[in-house]
């Protein structure tokens, strides 16, 4: 029997360097993601200070990340610069923020053609390595330079005044600034503007490292990063619901319901919208070793982000030994939960969304017990006829009056229509349904009985008209107008969005 595993049955088939190196540039990083990947390495190296510097440099821009971490020996640096330096299946230290042994290289190659790393473990103990993609392309070999490229020494000297640390330098930034745009008058402005998003991204992803007594200091140019807390825990109206351990305690899920806009300052509302806006930031926040992987959304559960649910934010904490099972990608920007926790996560999401909706409903409902509450708001009026009780459509309801004015039907036709509706309300069937299925008609899901767009438009018109005529607090105006409609949260959510835009 032939031994198929004999060395004689195999031949070497290494990848072509010039082809492979360009494939590694297409992992889907954007600039903030790529820089965050390097910050991960600095944090794992126990850095207390991390500086992201950049310059247009007369149309030859560069980006540099400097930290004061432990640094690397020459052997460790050589290994760190190797493509695939560590298998994702290998056991990792608990605090390790990497996984594939690719992050430094793929993140850097996605943005530049020259990557130089200069590191220092102590006085006199330095090491340098440089990947030049143009050189790899020309020589078609995996040749790693042991020297910095010409003109880079001054940029690497930021480490000279430190006892230890690491500098990562990007040059030939062909993915950040296209060649044909480098010489454009607006090229420098476009380059500098990109770092506004970098600041927000780092403040979001590393907010748990930027806060607390042992916080890490991260700067981008002259800007000192401040933690962005997606859960607004400094606001006393934020509800932190009960944390729930999953997967034998390895995963912790903590839902939060943020305060209604009327319970937030303008600064909190602006800050709470984050990098992508209130609607996009609702849902799950997945953290791996306190480092944010997912900044909102509902993973792949098919739950739709909507205005009514935007106060729902759910923190999920994972250790790094669950990377494979949660399908954490190279960029650390996506994940998918394993089957064994999916049911619980979906249950928690739905319950948290329901609580977020309750905040809207509670506010709308509370307005009905205020001085604005009177019978003209009701669509149905309860009246006594001798020993009988009847329900009639309220002809004075402002919303109904406006609808009829718009249609302009004959009064006799309206009387006949209302009479038919009033006499055919299925009272006994409603009573029977509620007896057999308690509260079956209360707090219906938002997908049931969703208000038509025409009624939403009418609600908006009445709100804007009242503001113009009466002025005053827009929140009180919204309370007043919503009272003319049913309890569906869509009305209030729409008006709250208008108020936020006005403010």
List the helices and strands and how they pair.
Layout: H1 17-23, H2 31-44, E1 49-55, E2 62-67, H3 74-80, H4 103-109, E3 114-122, E4 125-132, H5 133-139, H6 153-156, E5 165-171, H7 179-182, H8 187-205, H9 207-210, E6 217-220, E7 223-224, E8 239-240, E9 244-246, E10 251-257, H10 266-272, E11 283-288, E12 291-295, E13 312-318, H11 339-367, E14 380-385, E15 388-393, H12 398-407, H13 411-423, H14 427-436, H15 453-470, H16 474-482, H17 489-502
Parallel strand pairs: 1-6, 11-13
Antiparallel strand pairs: 1-2, 2-5, 3-4, 3-5, 6-7, 8-10, 9-10, 10-13, 11-12, 14-15
Helix pairs in contact: 1-5, 2-4, 2-8, 15-16, 15-17, 16-17
How would you sum up this structure in a few lines?
With 503 residues, this protein is of the alpha+beta class. The protein contains 17 helices and 15 strands.
